[in-house]
Structures are given as structure tokens and as C-alpha cells.
Amino acid sequence: MFRGVLNAAWAAAVPLACLIAVPVQGQARSSGPPVRHELEGVPIYRGGTKFRARENAPSRPDPPRATRGRSTSSPASEVRPTAATQETPQEIVVSDASSPAGTYLDEGLPDAAGACPCDDFNACSPESIFDCQQVPWSAGVEFTFLKPHFDSNVAFTTLNGDGATMESFTETNFDYDRELAPRVWIEGLQCSSLGVRAGYWQFDHPARSNLASPPANGFGRLTTPPFGTVDLSTSVPNSTLATASGINAYSIDLETTKSFDAGAWSWLATAGLRYAEVDQQYNAVLRNAAGNIQGTIDYSQMVQGFGPTVSLRTQRPFTPQLALFGFARGAVLAGDGESTLSAVEDQDLDTELITSRTSERDDLLPIGEMQVGLQWTPPCPGIWHPYLHVALEGQVWGGAGNASSSTGNLGFFGFNVALGTDW
Predict the structure, then answer these.
(1) How far apart are CA 109 and CA 117, in angstroms?
(2) Which residues contact 324 (CB under 8 A, 6 or more apart)?
(3) How far apart (Å, rounded) are the C-alpha atoms in residues 386 and 422?
(4) Tell me: the pLDDT tens digits for 336-374?
(5) What is the DSSP secondary-structure string of 32-51?
(6) Mean pLDDT, consecutive 10-residue segments, the chain of 423 residues?
(7) Are 230 and 297 in contact (CB under 8 A)?
């Protein structure tokens, strides 16, 4: 229903605009050379980067459509321009006071059906991307597949020894798989190349659980990370220590956007506000050789912050459909952190030892993000302009800590696949 309303509004508005601004458009398409009109350069958003219409573009011959961009089936059937048929671009100044000055090609105007005029490949060429109508909205979803990385994220430590001259310590860290972390965004644009953008991203997954027992010779020991005076270690063979962890990290962005061009590169700069939060948990259960619970540890720590964020995206097309792009973002968030500990020791005895502790702190959370990849834009389907991009992605959350501590850095690395559309 929503698309039907958009199509109906577009079909009604485009013919009227064409009648007011370009009364000779239909004649120029059917016979004669393409016509150039004076109109303000309009920013066109294209898969995350706006393109500006060319201003005062130099005149150039335009080959006949019968041979543009492709060859015919045989040399005998090829149509070659002659002196009589060679098309020479003309220029017309639109005297309508509502039409500001600038330049664009007649073939870049929307046709009566509201479709983006394309070349003989039936895809938007760089010229028609620059010259098409304004695209005021963009939205999409990004499927990021990321794996967390830490300075250190210890699940437990194993001591191996012979009871005499040898001891060795081995740290077992929590291990995460590469998991899906979706990102969604929507952006509204204006003719001044300014816009507003909102985005949301989240990673919410557990680590692989661990289960271990002390060495069978009785000279080893399993110990958890330090949690104050809590001691959940064991050296009894056939006793078990099970550990688990998880991460829930997300960010919300609201920012303004500005597009500009520099040679063959198009740029999109943003500035705004970000809220982000990351929660991590550590859980441990110690059982004796009979399988009875001896003790438990439940620890969680989080940090959240709110503050400014800026980003810069650049894109360079190599073909009408394929472009290289890069993206970088930085944010400095001021907020607070909280740690909560609940532990039970000697649970298999008559008297349990229970420890509870909660601490709060002021904290600073700097975040950096980067992407490098390729974007593909298929042929134009009317007012909709879909695109697909694939990229490597890395993130750093400074001072986010790990499962058992509020100190240390958290990182994410992987790749993403994005599906979006402009309309």
C-alpha cells in the first residue's frame, strides 16, 4: 500500500514538473540532439553516498542510442553517425524564476513514468546517477558477522605439577564464534545536501562454555579469576569447574549528514550523538566428585555512555554498478559503569559463605569503527534504487573490560553484508 501511494504521487508530480521546467523534453527524446537545461545541481544519494549534479558541465557529443555502450550483431548493421546525424548538445536557460541556475542533461530527467533514465545497458550510468531526480530517503539493514577479541578474558587457570620440581600454569580464555550482529539505518535528505540519519547496532551472544577437572595426579589445581576474597579453586581429581560468559553490546546513533565531492570521490560526513552500552557476565559452578555443587560465582559488569560521534564515508565508482568505499567512525562517550558480584562457597557443607558486592564508577568509553569494501548497484527499478555492499569491519571499545574485570579493551572483527535502497 505504501509503495502504491508513493508511485501514484510520483506519477502525478513528475509530468507536472516536466511541463513546467522542461517543455521540450519529449521532443528532445524522440528526435534531435539531447538538450541541456540550467538547473541547480541536486545532491543524489547513492547507497550511502550522495552525488551532486554536475554544474556547468562542458558540452560533449552524444553518440546515437543505437550504438551507445554496446555493439550491434554485425558490422553491416552498425549505425555510424554522419555529419548530418551527429548530435551536438545544446543548452537552454530556463527562465522560470522557481528554477535556480545550474546544468544537467535532458536524458537525466525522470520520464513520464517516474523511472530513472538509464543507458543501453539498462543501468544507471555515472552521468544519469548525477543527473537523476533527488532521492530523499535511504534505509537498509547490515548483517555484520563479528567475533569479539580481548586483551585477556580468562575463564580459569590450570596448575600442572609433579609435586616436586615442576609447575606450569595454563590460562583458558573464553572463546567466541563469529556471530550475526545486525545494524539498521534510515536517512532523510534535503536539496542542500544536508540530511538526518538514525542507526542501531547490536551484538548479543554467549561464549563457548568450558568444563574442566584438575589433573588426575592430585598435584594440580583449577582456579577462577580473582573476585576479591572469593576462592572457588579445587585440586580434587574428578571434581569439575564449569564456566560461561556472554556479551551484550549495542549502540544508537542520531546525526546530521553532509555530502560533497572531490574529483572522482564522493564523500559523506556525519556528526551527531551516540548512546552505547556493553554488558558482560561471568558464571562459574564448582562440583565435587559426587556431582554436588560446592560453590558458584555470578559476576556482571557494564559500562554505558553518551556523547558526540563523527564519521566519514567515501566512495569511488569504477563502473556504473561497482564502487569501492571506505568508512570510519569515532565516538567519545562519558557515562558510568557498574559491577555486581554474588558468590557462594562451601555450599556442600553445613555453613555456606555468601559474598555480595556492588560497585559503581564514572567511566569513559571511546569507540572506533572502520569498514572497507565494495558496493554493487543493480539496474534502476523505477523510483527504488537498491544496492548491496560487502566489507571488512573492525571495532574497538576502549576500556569496556572483559567477563571478569572492568579493565581492558574489547574489539570486534569480521565482515558485513548490507542490503539497502534509496527512494
Answers:
(1) 7
(2) 315, 316, 318, 373, 374, 375
(3) 6
(4) 999 999 999 998 888 889 999 999 999 999 999 999 999
(5) S--EEE-----EEEETTEEE
(6) 47 39 37 37 40 41 38 41 47 41 35 39 40 68 97 93 81 95 92 87 96 88 92 91 97 95 92 97 94 94 97 94 96 96 90 93 96 91 87 97 94 96 86
(7) yes
Strand 410-422 to strand 137-150: parallel, antiparallel, or no bridges (unpaired)? antiparallel
Pairs from 109-112 (Cβ < 8 Å, separation ≥ 24): 109/18, 109/22, 109/25, 109/133, 110/14, 110/18, 111/14, 111/29, 112/14, 112/15, 112/18
Under 8 Å between Cβ of 386 and 135 = no
Measured CA to CA, the distance from residue 341 to residue 357 in angstroms comes to 5
Q: Are 397 and 367 in contact (CB under 8 A)?
A: yes
Distance of CA 413 to the CA centre of its chain: 13
Closest CA to 108 of 58, 41, 48: 41
User: What does the pLDDT read at residue 343?
Assistant: 95
Report field, pTM of the whole predicted structure over 0.85: no
Residues 6+ apart with CB under 8 A from 15: 112
**Which residues have CB under 8 Å from 40's CB, separation 6+?**
53, 99, 100, 101, 102, 191
Task: In whole angstroms, give the CA distance from residue 118 to residue 380.
Answer: 8
Domain boundaries, the chain: 2-127, 137-422
**3-class DSSP state of 29:** helix
CB 377 within 8 A of CB 140: no
35-37 and 90-92: which strand pairing? parallel
Cell numbers given for 220: 594440580
CATH number of this structure's domain 137-422 = 2.40.128
10 Å Cβ neighbour count for 166? 9
Q: Which of 156, 179, 180 is nearest to 169 (CA)?
A: 156
Distance separating alpha carbons of residues 344 and 355, to the nearest angstrom: 6
Cell 538509464 belongs to 118
Measured distance CA(86)–CA(63) in Å, rounded: 7
